[in-house]
Amino acid sequence: MKTKDKILFKALELFNEIGYTTITTRHIAADLNISPGNLHYHFRHSEDIIKILFAELVLKMDDLLNGMKKKELKTLEDLYRFTFSTCEIFYSYRFIFVNFVDILKKIPEIRSQYEEIHASRKEEFQLIFSGFQKNNILKKNVPDFILDGLIQQIFIIADNWLTHNRLILKLDKEAAVHHYTLLQMNLFYPFLNKEQQTLYEHHYITRK
Predict the structure, then answer these.
(1) Measured on CA atoms in the order 139, 142, 144, 146, is the torsion positive or negative?
(2) Model confidence at 112: pLDDT above 60
(3) Nearest residue to 69 (alpha-carbon basis) of 149, 129, 139
């Protein structure tokens, strides 16, 4: 692994476990047993590291969304796996969400990216939900304003569940990903066709 990659890997680990506001580039260098000068050759400031970690997060979500959009025959299990995988990715970059407001204020480039991503993600989710309606997973007679509201609810939970877990539930990774996946999946329940509601109850709720 190249030094730059080692720095990113270690920074992500320390930001997640100890805290973004506590860890400096000197801490990262010391933990890697390299000189601060060596680290600063690759990254002048911790903000530069965070920009790349945020870009990694976005890229992983892009890949996940693109995979879902390409699926012709979408199933309830696809929806569950998509939601589960999203939670796993977000957990891997949890320091970003726990410190979201502070990071957006401190790094204007990320704030601009986030605003653009938020708009494009809404269109992508609308397209994905349309596919689930065509495959008779979601009801076809759901008003647009209700679907728009559902997407906003998903975004709000997705951006904030890690903070809720850290403050309230304090679940470890496996339990947290499972719990918040179901919490988000429950938002879809009223919009599932009757057959899919029964499948959801038996396959996911009774086994939780």
Answers:
(1) negative
(2) yes
(3) 129
Query: 76-80, long-range: CB within 8 Å, 24+ apart, which pairs?
Result: 76/137, 76/192, 76/196, 76/199, 76/200, 76/203, 79/132, 79/137, 79/185, 79/188, 80/181, 80/185, 80/204
Q: How far is CA 93 from CA 34, 56, 69, 131, 147, in A?
A: 24, 9, 24, 29, 28
**To which residue do tokens 């012709």 refer?**
72
Pick from 85, 49, 48, 87: nearest CA to 66: 85
Q: Stretch 177-186: mean pLDDT, rounded?
A: 97
CA distance 20 to 196: 42
- What domains are there in the chain, each with its CATH number? 1-44 (1.10.10.60), 47-205 (1.10.357.10)
Q: What is the mean pLDDT of residues 36-50?
A: 96
Predicted TM-score (pTM) above 0.70 = yes
Q: Return the bridge partners of 63, or none.
A: none
The rounded distance, in Å, linking the Cα atoms of 90 and 118 is: 15
State the burial class of residue 116 (Cβ atoms within 10 Å of its Cβ: 0-12, 13-18, 19+).
exposed
Radius of gyration of the chain (CA): 19
Contact 151, 125 (CB under 8 A): yes
Q: What share of the chain is helix, strand, coil (3-state, %, to 5)?
A: 80, 0, 20
